[in-house]
Amino acid sequence: MDKHTxxxxxxxxxxxxxxxxxxxxxxxxxxxxxSAILPNMKRLTHVFRKVxxxxxxxxxLYKKDGSNVDLCRRSLVESGGAPLCPxxxxxxxxxxxxxxxxxxLDTDLLLSGGIxxxxxxxxxxxxxxxxxxxxxxxxxxxxxxxxxxxAFTGCNFPNCPRASIYEASERDFRIAMIDDAVSGLYExxxxxxxxxxxxxxxxxxxxxHISKNV
Length: 214
Description:
Layout: E1 12-17, H1 34-51, E2 55-59, H2 71-78, H3 107-111, E3 116-119, E4 122-126, H4 138-144, E5 149-154, H5 160-170, E6 174-182, H6 187-195, E7 199-201, H7 203-211
Helix pairs in contact: 1-7
């Protein structure tokens, strides 16, 4: 731990990445181990809500015509594969992350670059590429909230969490990655995160830190 990179638990936001129904076990865009991390993600959303700390859910949405899809997945979507399609049940946040089961994404708002507020200090932001900061309003929103530190969770480490963490590091946010609440994490990836000043923590550990703010 280092004084320049230690997370400040009095000004930290929880970030969930791409934890949507299509990415869960048995679904069209299944990402291994994403369902397994949901209990820890649910635990963290509960404690952040309890103490009134910000939660930002980052989501992907793939238009049926493929126009907003990464090049490596565009053929899949154009050929009729439609994971994370706006308006579909599969694009919705995993129910474990929600306070109410009937909360639905406002996909028109999100695709236009807007921020959807779904609770007190809880919001959803769409990202068009791997990184959560790419061409979107996340950085400005975090600064308006007075956030200095970010706790990353979600799906799936080699792609979107890793890209988002590098982008956060480039913007001088202090970063914790909750390693038992991120799917697809592997040993070398953890070492790479530590090498750029990321604190690897367990859900129970960050819960203890956050609960001190009650």
